[in-house]
Amino acid sequence: MNFNPDLCRNESEVESKLIVSYLLPKLGYGIEHWHQEVTFGSIRLDFLSFATQKLPFSLDGDSPLSLVMEAKHPKQNLDRHQRKLRRYLTSMNIKYGLLTNAREIRIYEKVGNNIELIFSCLGIEIDDKIEEIKKLVGRDYFRQNRTYNTTETPVEEAGVSEANSTDYEKN
């Protein structure tokens, strides 16, 4: 299945057509590996994916939270949302963030208290670049290249809104 960014006319379609129907499955995230509209205190994430799902988990460097995905309206400039993504990644100690408006995809990596752009492509190029994207933020990559320590701050103590959290199954 090829992705056509012209089919996305609003933010909701970027979420449903690009992220849910295309990117998450291509990157190896089944429906049990991601959650939509997750709230952590004052932060509301469009998508949060997990390399593994173990409770309790901590929001430290060994957190199983692997990727935040933020969708924007196709006409919005992604530069305007970079600061918010940095806040999400640094405050929740998540290593990678994907920001997209379907016309463009950017992947950022958290480095200290900042984020660095590590990948960018146009929406029309996603099919050609999917293997490169998988190597950066694919679920299999996270599972193969990271270990997780779940002995610190449980998710309940990290401020997760119970209205938007679910029972995570062990993987």
Description:
This protein has four helices and six strands. A hairpin with a 2-residue loop joins strand 5 and strand 6. With 171 residues, it is of the alpha+beta class. It has one domain: tt1808, chain A, CATH 3.90.1570.30.
How are the SSEs ordered, and which strands pair?
Elements: H1 11-26, E1 34-40, E2 43-50, E3 65-71, H2 82-92, E4 96-100, E5 104-111, E6 114-122, H3 126-137, H4 139-145
Parallel strand pairs: 3-4
Antiparallel strand pairs: 1-2, 2-3, 4-5, 5-6
The class by helix and strand makeup works out as alpha+beta
Domain tally: 1
Q: Separation of termini?
A: 28 Å
The total of beta strands comes to 6
Short overview:
By secondary structure, the chain is of the alpha+beta class.
Keywords:
single chain; alpha+beta; tt1808, chain A; six-stranded mixed sheet; 4 helices; globular
